[in-house]
Amino acid sequence: MKIRDELNRELDFSCDELIEMFGDRKRLKEAEVNDLKQKIKGYEDKKRAEEAFYQSLSPVRKFFAGRAPSHHQAVEYMVHVKERLKQIDGIKQRIQQIDQVTVLCREHSSDEPLEVSSALTEEIIDYRKGKDS
Q1: What count of other Cβ atoms lies within 10 Å of the Cβ of residue 21?
Q2: HEC letters along the chain
Q3: Which of 95-119 are b and which e, b meaning 16 or more Cβ less than 10 Å from the residue's Cβ?
Q4: 19 closest CA partner among 99, 77, 84
Q5: Rounded to a whole number, what is the distance in angstroms from the first to the last CA of the chain?
Q6: Are 5 and 121 in contact (CB under 8 A)?
Q7: At what angle do helices 15-56 and 83-107 cross, to 10 degrees?
Q8: Closest CA to 99 of 5, 29, 11, 12
Q9: Could you tell me if 2 and 114 are in contact, meaning their C-beta atoms sit under 8 angstroms apart?
């Protein structure tokens, strides 16, 4: 089966090999999503513990404890949570593309090339390089 992207690069793969490769890539992407979710959960747990500790202090100790200004906390939240959520969304979109191409590959039987995005073509090339190494 021939695969072509927007840049008119053509690759030749068997359908079974392509499905296997996309299955491996999908598992890696899902593991990456889980890792990012664990990092977000860890950050939120840490912030909850810090807040609980701060609330348990006496008013005098709170005065001397000093907290980061709210804008620092907002930036920290953006870095640790929002950016990771954006990464998760991007990865989920890539997984969805992989699923669509897998379905198309199973249904595709003609001699015409299968159209995929250049990002998927790059993943295919990277996978082939990694497998050859």
Answers
A1: 18
A2: CEEECCCCCEEECCHHHHHHHHHHHHHHHHHHHHHHHHHHHHHHHHHHHHHHHHHHCCHHHHHHHCCCCHHHHHHHHHHHHHHHHHHHHHHHHHHHHHHHHHHHHHHCCCCCCEECCHHHHHHHHHHHHHHHC
A3: bebbeebbeebeebeeeebbebeee
A4: 99
A5: 24
A6: yes
A7: 160
A8: 29
A9: yes
Task: Give residue 22's identity as a one-letter amino acid code.
Answer: F
Pairing assessment for the beta strands 2-4 and 10-12 based on DSSP bridges = antiparallel
Whether this model's pTM surpasses 0.90: no
Digitized pLDDT (tens) for each residue of the chain, 133 residues in all: 788 888 888 888 788 888 888 899 899 999 999 999 999 999 999 999 999 998 899 988 888 887 778 888 899 999 999 999 999 999 999 999 999 988 888 887 667 778 888 888 888 888 778 776 5
- In angstroms, the Cα distances linking 95 to 17, 53, 89 are 18, 40, 10
Residue holding tokens 């073509």? 121
